[in-house]
Amino acid sequence: MPSPPEWVPPAPEPESPAAEQSAPAAPASKAGRNLPAALAVGMGLGLSLIAILLFAPKVLIGVIAAAIAVATWEVAKRLREADVLVPRIPLLAGGQAIVWLAWPWGPQGVLGAFGATALAIMVWRLFDHGLRATPRNYLRDTAISVFVLAWIPLLASFAVLMLQQDDGNLRVLTFMILVVCSDVGGYVAGVLFGKHPMVPHISPKKSWEGFGGSLVFCVIGGLLTVTLLLQANSMIGVLLGVGLVLIATTGDLIESQVKRELGIKDMGTLLPGHGGIMDRLDSMLPSAFVAWLVLTALL
To answer: What is the pTM of this model?
Structure first.
């Protein structure tokens, strides 16, 4: 007599598309970022820096030194992944010297530390494989190392130089507010109205409409901050706003091109929703120089 058929459990029914769509996912903006995380991190950093500038401005020097150390490490790590052997020890040590020597000796300290570090990089890269080895890609690696030295610690030192001036904490606060205005204006206008790519082969999501939003926000921010915080002529605020929009946008594009050549999206992962420290400093570093230049010349 044939045996009874073996019982087989029914296969689970496939989930409906609605059920699949209900799975939690991190919300992302049109820029591909986790927007709530980005806002939370940005607000936290912003409030912390404002508190430091208002109540303990000299502490900002240590914050800048720590930030440029992390940013330099991030960039050096990414470059080494691409087989560009930048010497990390001279870059990190020299970067700290550039920032800290700006405090007691001003521009002379910055220039001396930069020159000494550039020379140290040349010598280090020449002999880092020993006295008997032939250096490989010496010119390329040395040139890129000096570029990183100028890109990160040298530009950051202008924020320290600005801090040493009369009402230096308010000058630094002004420049930081304007960079935020540029970012926020560009994001809002780009999301709402962005249709015409600005430089699609460098940063496909950056639009002329976003640039216009940055310009409007930054000029208004410049008028208010220079007039209310620095008690200066409002036209200086207009000039500063226009200058910072141009240089902040350019700074963002510079990092975008570097990342494009390295084949990466972010320099790091330390800040949720933002990437690495360098991904937050890309527009602030050149803006520190322009703010120092404009305010030093006109105030």
So the answer is: 0.86
